[in-house]
């Protein structure tokens, strides 16, 4: 299902399968380019030809309905599914609007045509240029390599050394071009999910504004529009975090390519030149060879990247022996002989370098010394799931909940690294932990939250373990939301006892943080973005693993949303010694649940009641007791672990990467109020202008009168610029909270980004 992920490590192997996967991406880009070009053409026809408007709209709608998105990976998130079906929804709306046309479409060029043309020129054209460069470097590298390998071993050592350096330079340049091309191709594939759909959504918003007869249809579309807006923003946020991770991986591979080459204990593969006799003449033929160590089977496929990537027939044999070929016995370098059990004679092969020959011979148990390819494992840090770790986490959590749980950007804003390291070293040391006073102004809240994240990152293994990492991802990919929760519930109770207890302590804290999201702006979705890659980091850093970050976030969202059920109830399917119910019942949280991630479109406009706003969660007794740092050296951890704090910790954005604070306000996907038009990075909604004065409308919504309902939520149908200090400026799609009647005729009072002001009554619709 979908397009396969292109691994950067495959750029070094340059296998036939990698070339085939790359072709599928190129074909998809060509398909998208043609579709966008056709879509732009249809859009212009729609604007210019009023008489043929009906025909143009039908063709435009049909084009949207026929196009299908292809995602990278084997599964789609709910947001991606929502985006994928959006084109079909748009088509249905356009077909229903055919009989309701009354005006010429205004602003269509700026809203629809220019963004699509910009995407096509800046993104797809850039990918095409990268392909030309990649094809050119492929041909150059293959030519230089063949010329180099044909050099006689009898030439002077200086000449051979100079030739080796030349080939290394060409090879390194080819690898860099290949990495950049793969990165660009996958970037364009991901960007089109929002850069391509969002202009269409804005275009439809314009149609609704200027089509009076389509008003009722626009109201029916509002629910899906809200879902899609959230999905687009969620997809954009995940893209930003994923892109930064992929780009970081690409830079690492550029700087240290040898350290990131995938070396398997069970498989060796790469290009080899095989000496063959044809018509009484010996010739070297290039094969892509794969050796499986378990059955000792060698597979060879005739393939030459220069010839357009045409694959030959596959040959295979069972390896009997492998022997290094002495330099004085053959003119070529890097040669070795292999014997097969199921075919006669000796097969002479030539590797691409001395290092490559060593790897092949080591894999085949040849007569070369075996070198240890395993990297020295880094010494485990001081962070452990022990008594000290639990007490330090409780102390940090208690400080966050009592000092700064309402602080905006909690867990998103990173602390100074030197201060974070100092705090951790002091609190983790039994000799100095008693001297650390977290109430001191020296320790800012962002320093404490960064210390929590850093502690979880430097554990020898992720908190949710490498063993179950793929199982959690698989559970998040399930179609049924209830099945996801059930499976994750079961997996949590299969975790080792200490891991599960620490996870419960953390998730309860995160749920507490999410319950204060109106103050700290850290919703369940934002916390998922911060803690997903930390709690479920993969054992191997690959492009495919980075693409699964969005599912890691979903797992954390489910844990927070259903924390009472997951940690206080033992699932029927959970078995094993770690899954026995605890003798002591776990304390239930007295707080109301934070907005649901599965019901995100509905909770977008969730407003707490007056009693909820004034409600403060009491600190947990055992967390409070744990602030005595003398417990750091106690010998028993069970007494303070099982009943961990039921507060919850917010999580920073992946895009921040513990770097600069992410000050932008999120769109409805983050479950907070929409940003004001003057916010630093407000969304690129079209600024459609409504009439300068409110015109009479029977009702702004299906309700009989907005005056009869106090404290409701409403969404802006038009954009409005304030002409007085008491008025609010806003754009179409803005959500207002606590909307109620005003003393001014024709005006309502509402709240936007914490500021109260007047809103034209007929500019909004109640939700």
Could you state the CATH homologous superfamily of the largest domain? Arfaptin homology (AH) domain/BAR domain
Q: What structural class do the secondary elements suggest?
A: alpha+beta
Shape: globular
Largest sheet: 6 strands, antiparallel, barrel
Tally of DSSP helical segments? 25
- As a percent range, the share of strand residues is 5-15%
Q: Roughly what is the average pLDDT, rounded to an integer?
A: 75
Distance between termini? 38 Å
Q: What is the spatial order of strands in the main beta sheet?
A: 1-2-3-4-5-6
Number of strands: 11
Assembly type of the chains comes to single chain
Detailed description of the structure:
There is one protein chain. The chain has 767 residues and is α+β, with helices and mostly antiparallel strands. It has four domains: 14-252, Substrate Binding Domain Of Dnak, Chain:A, Domain 2, CATH 1.20.1270.60; 263-364, Roll (PH-domain like); 387-568, Rho GTPase activation protein (Phosphatidylinositol 3-kinase, Chain A, Orthogonal Bundle); 714-766, SH3 type barrels, CATH 2.30.30. The protein has helices at residues 8-13, 16-48, 53-66, 78-84, 86-96, 108-149, 157-195, 197-210, 215-255, 354-363, 387-403, 417-428, 445-457, 469-476, 481-492, 497-515, 517-520, 524-535, 543-547, 549-561, 563-568, 600-603, 610-613, 621-625, 638-641; strands at 267-278, 281-292, 297-303, 311-324, 335-340, 346-350, 712-716, 735-741, 747-752, 755-760, 764-766. Helix 8 runs antiparallel to helix 9. Mean pLDDT is 75; it is low at 368-381 and 574-709.
